[in-house]
């Protein structure tokens, strides 16, 4: 099998069909179909199932997908390394919103101070999306707090964190479990590590929160809570300023805590360049 076969296979998977893959790669659809057919004949396994107008990977296709991404990634890394990869190719770093709004920028600034010649590409998204970027080799490393599902990703804790419940001033600051269950909550979107941890702990306590708002950024959540539209659970690091100036108050519910770790996540087959290693060391030493 050639690299071209793997590239076509991955593009069909990423685009969800052969027509879109052909358009993206600027080749004919029959050429796409032939490449997939050759792969299936070579491995003696069906790689895609068609459901409606979309193609979905079979179990064999899922297995090949991870190997194919690794092969393509290694090829790209080898070529880049020989052209001075560590000095010219961007280090691609992702972070979740909670980390992005608290410790991410200081960490990037520290890296830039250490290696000013190193280009850096950074992006902020929720945990689920960052996981996909890592698996698709669109990021070199990500800083997350949510659950990672893939066995192909390695995790290293670097900082302890805690979600805390906050409300507008004037509310009771100590609540019972029954009282918290009846509160209106403003929450992050599905796929957010903050949302996942909150729901996990509430399930463990057999509590069902009443969600009245779902926002994809903590600034809007804090504004809604300050307007007394509901309460929320956010990283302690994101609300320290507002608690300090009195625009938010911390709520306590005896017996309920939301503890977690911030973690470095990267693919198990990722080649650790000097710049990437330095960034990992900065994260582990700074906090």
Please identify which CATH superfamily of the largest domain we are dealing with.
Periplasmic binding protein-like II
Q: How many separate structural domains?
A: 3
Name of the CATH architecture of the largest domain:
3-Layer(aba) Sandwich
CATH class of the largest domain: Alpha Beta
- Beta-strand share of residues: 15-25%
Helical fraction equals: 40-55%
The H/E string reads HHHEEHHEHHEHEEHEHEHEHEEH
Distance between the termini: 46 Å
Task: Report Rg.
Answer: 23 Å
Shape descriptor: globular
Task: Summarize the structure in short.
This protein is of the alpha/beta class. It has 3 domains: 3-82, Arc Repressor Mutant, subunit A; 85-159 and 261-286, D-Maltodextrin-Binding Protein, domain 2; 161-259, D-Maltodextrin-Binding Protein, domain 2, CATH 3.40.190.
Protein model, in words:
It is built from 13 helices and eleven strands. The protein has 287 residues and is of the alpha/beta class. The chain starts with a helix and ends with a helix. Strands 3, 4, 5, 6, 9, 10 and 11 form a seven-stranded mixed β-sheet that branches. The longest helix has 24 residues. The chain folds into three domains: 80 residues, Arc Repressor Mutant, subunit A (Orthogonal Bundle), CATH 1.10.10; 101 residues, Periplasmic binding protein-like II (D-Maltodextrin-Binding Protein, domain 2); 99 residues, Periplasmic binding protein-like II (D-Maltodextrin-Binding Protein, domain 2, 3-Layer(aba) Sandwich). Strand 7, helix 10 and strand 8 form a beta-alpha-beta unit. The model has no long low-confidence stretch (mean pLDDT 91).
């Amino acid at each position: 099998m050639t690299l071209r076969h793997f590239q076509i296979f991955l593009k069909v998977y990423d685009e969800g069909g052969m027509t879109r893959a052909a358009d993206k790669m600027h080749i004919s659809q029959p050429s796409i179909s032939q490449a997939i057919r050759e792969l299936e004949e070579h491995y003696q396994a069906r790689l895609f199932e068609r459901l409606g107008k979309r193609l979905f990977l079979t179990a064999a296709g899922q297995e090949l997908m991870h190997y194919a991404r690794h092969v393509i990634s290694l090829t790209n890394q080898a070529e880049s390394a020989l052209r001075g990869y560590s000095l010219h190719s961007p280090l691609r770093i992702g972070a979740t919103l909670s980390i992005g709004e608290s410790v991410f920028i200081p960490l990037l600034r520290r890296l830039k101070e250490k290696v000013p010649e190193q280009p850096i590409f950074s992006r902020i998204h929720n945990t689920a999306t960052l996981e996909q970027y890592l698996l698709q080799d669109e990021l070199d490393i990500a800083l997350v707090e949510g659950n990672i599902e893939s066995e192909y990703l390695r995790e290293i804790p670097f900082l302890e964190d805690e979600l805390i419940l906050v409300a507008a001033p004037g509310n009771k600051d100590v609540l019972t479990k029954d009282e918290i269950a009846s509160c209106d909550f403003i929450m992050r979107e599905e796929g957010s590590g903050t949302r996942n941890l909150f729901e996990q702990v509430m399930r463990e306590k057999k509590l069902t929160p009443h969600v009245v708002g779902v926002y994809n950024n903590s600034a809007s959540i804090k504004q809604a809570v300050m307007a007394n539209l509901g309460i929320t659970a956010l990283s302690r690091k994101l609300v320290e300023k507002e608690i300090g100036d009195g625009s938010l108050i911390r709520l306590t519910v005896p017996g309920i805590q939301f503890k977690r770790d911030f973690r470095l996540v990267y693919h198990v087959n990722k080649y650790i360049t000097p710049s990437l290693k330095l960034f990992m060391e900065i994260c582990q030493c700074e906090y």
